[in-house]
């Protein structure tokens, strides 16, 4: 798990566009999760900040994520979500440890 490259996006969605954003995110998500280097992707909505979403995606390594990031596949994905956004940021990190919950997969 220590080699996993994680990308965390913080997205500000335009007021009133939240349901459409969630729907489109689900519809186009396979353009990310279908990439052989992607290990999964999650969408979370903030409970404290209206219109704020976090997208987390895990990748086998940074070079393969960067390859995806500059691909036509990613550009098309971003263009479909862009109309709903009013701002955002990206943070990258390397997972250094993971503790599964009791009863979870080990």
Can you give keywords for this protein?
four-stranded antiparallel sheet, 4 helices, alpha+beta, single chain, 106 residues
Detailed description of the structure:
Keywords: Monooxygenase, Oxidoreductase. GO terms for molecular function: monooxygenase activity. This is Heme-degrading monooxygenase HmoA. InterPro entries: ABM_dom, Dimeric_a/b-barrel. With 106 residues, the protein is α+β, with helices and mostly antiparallel strands. It has a domain of 60 residues. It is 31% helix and 33% strand. It has four helices and four strands; from the N terminus they run βααββααβ. A four-stranded antiparallel β-sheet has the order 2-3-1-4. Strand 2 and strand 3 form a beta hairpin. It is globular and about 40 Å long. The mean pLDDT is 92.
Instruction: Give the total of beta strands.
Output: 4
Give the overall shape.
globular
Number of helices: 4
User: On the 0-100 scale, what is the average pLDDT?
Assistant: 92
Helix content: 25-40%
**How are the strands ordered across the major sheet?**
2-3-1-4
- Helix-strand string: EHHEEHHE
Distance between the termini: 11 Å
Secondary-structure content class: alpha+beta
Strand content: 25-35%
What value does the Rg take, in angstroms? 15 Å
What does the main sheet amount to?
Answer: 4 strands, antiparallel
Task: Give unreliable regions as ranges.
Answer: none
């Amino acid at each position: 798990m220590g080699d996993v490259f994680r990308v965390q996006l913080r997205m500000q969605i335009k007021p009133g566009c939240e349901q459409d954003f969630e729907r489109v995110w689900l519809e186009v998500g396979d353009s990310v999760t279908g990439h052989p280097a992607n290990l999964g992707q999650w969408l979370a909505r903030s409970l404290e900040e209206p219109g704020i979403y976090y997208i987390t995606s895990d990748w086998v390594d940074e070079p393969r994520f960067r390859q995806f990031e500059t691909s036509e596949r990613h550009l098309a994905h971003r263009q479909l979500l862009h109309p709903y956004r009013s701002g955002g940021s990206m943070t990258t990190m390397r997972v250094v440890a993971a503790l599964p919950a009791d009863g979870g997969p080990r």
